[in-house]
Amino acid sequence: MKLNIERAALMKALGHVQSVVERRNTIPILSNVLLSAERGGLSFSATDLDMEIVDETAAEVSATGQITAPAHILYEIVRKLPDGAQVELKFNGEDPRLSIQAGRSKFNLPVLPAGDFPVMSSDGLSSRISVDSDALTRLIDKTRFAISTEETRYYLNGLYVHTVMEDGSPKLRCVATDGHRLALAEMPAPEGSVGAPGVIIPRKTIQEARRLLEDAGEMVELQVSPAKVRFEFGKASLTSKVIDGAFPDYMRVIPKDNTKIVRLDNKLFEQAVDRVATISAEKSRSVKLAIEAGRLTLTVRNMEAGQGVEELEIDYDGDAFEIGFNARYLLDVCGQIEGETMEMRFADPASPTLVLDPTDAGVQYVLMPLRV
Q1: How does pLDDT run across 327-341, given as a tens digit for each residue?
Q2: Measuring CA to CA, which residue among 73, 78, 84 is closest to residue 109?
Q3: Burial class (CB in 10 A: 0-12, 13-18, 19+), 22
Q4: Contacting residues for 303 by C-beta, under 8 A, at least 6 apart
Q5: Residue 231 banded pLDDT, cuts 50, 70, 90
Q6: In contact, 245 and 156? CB cutoff 8 Å
Q7: What span, in angstroms and rounded, lies between the C-alpha atoms of 231 and 240?
Q8: Which member of 163, 180, 187, 259 has the lowest number of beta carbons within 10 Å of its beta carbon?
């Protein structure tokens, strides 16, 4: 194998694939990236056995071939080469190392045989969906913060992507919950999505897909099966296993009859929560909201650090009540509201609260209250 490639192109493609590689691996070849040189181009593959990313880029290939090399070390070498450098990659059977040369810089890296590199099959991937990349980015950004990190309820460790019928029209919907909060975002169902199986896409896969969306074209292709999902971003593709489990019936959690409606300035509320939370106990991070006609009082009490109080004007004319929330969860939801105003709908201090963005009817957030 022998080829010349421009440093920026090499770094971009390596950057796409190397992040899937775990820093610590018990299987040595999983620390490597598979390099496949064919006439006119170089392709890269990396996997952690649950997910595989493949990308390709143009290169001047004078001798074709395949080999695997340490992913993170190769990426760091290329990252530190000067801009505009021409990089030569060379491997032959006589020297059991990959040679990397750029100007006066020369490196030799250990290799492992390409034949030992695990390749993820695409069996069963049938449903093909074309999604606008901006729309998919919105669905992911509006929901991924609520994905659970608790391993015990593994079926919550991902984003539930599925199609629903609502008011006679199909919607592509993403839902995430960790049991304390829930985030839902939807869009009109793109062609091909009706009838596709609903899948729970793992948190790490969602993070990688979101990263690849930064360099995606206008459209992204999705292929779905009950066991796998594949994202195709032009020349790059991401294939992943999905979580084998049943996502809970989230519609039962979304309140329908919360009649106490409060409208408030989202930015002012976010800043006030952030300030009073400064002295909250790190474990609970609880903040008390005292709501009355025209006014909201936020209070945090900490036996060691004292007390913080903030007052805000709000649009509300109902009965007074008090309710508590985790400050971090409030701030996360505030960060998703696009418009100036946030709408909060309450039932009572012990029931879930619904948070809406008046400028985006396709999102809903649910927060479970805390005792304060």
Answers
A1: 999 999 999 999 999
A2: 73
A3: middle
A4: none
A5: very high
A6: no
A7: 9
A8: 259
Tokens of 317: 């004319």
Task: Say how far apart CA 46 and CA 32 lie, in whole Å.
Answer: 7
Question: pTM of the entire structure?
Answer: 0.91
Contact status, residue 245 vs residue 155, Cβ threshold 8 Å = yes
For residue 3, with 0-12 CB atoms within 10 Å meaning exposed, 13-18 middle and 19 or more buried, which class applies? Answer: buried
> pLDDT, tens digit, for every residue of 299-319?
998 877 788 999 999 999 999
Q: Mind listing the pLDDT tens digit for each residue in 90-116?
A: 998 788 899 999 989 999 999 999 999
Which among 368, 366, 280 is positioned nearest to 324, based on CA atoms? 368
Q: Which pLDDT belongs to residue 100?
A: 95
User: What residue spans define the domains of the chain?
Assistant: 2-116, 127-252, 260-367
Cβ–Cβ contacts within 10 Å for residue 351, how many?
14
Structure tokens at 366: 């649910």
Name the pairing type of β-strands 228-233 and 32-38.
Answer: unpaired
CA 172 to chain centre: 17
d(CA 343, CA 269): 11
Q: In CATH, what number does 260-367 get?
A: 3.10.150.10
Please give the CATH architecture assigned to the domain spanning 127-252.
Answer: Roll (3.10)
Question: Is it true that 2-116 and 260-367 share their CATH fold?
Answer: yes
Q: Which backbone phi and psi does 334 adopt, to 5 degrees?
A: -55, -40
Q: Which of 51, 45, 46, 43 is nearest to 21 (CA)?
A: 46
Residue 107's alpha-carbon distances to 17, 87, 121, 306, in angstroms, are 21, 11, 33, 58
Nearest Cα to 212, choosing from 360, 76, 46? 46
What's the rounded Cα separation, in Å, for the pair 206 and 321? 39
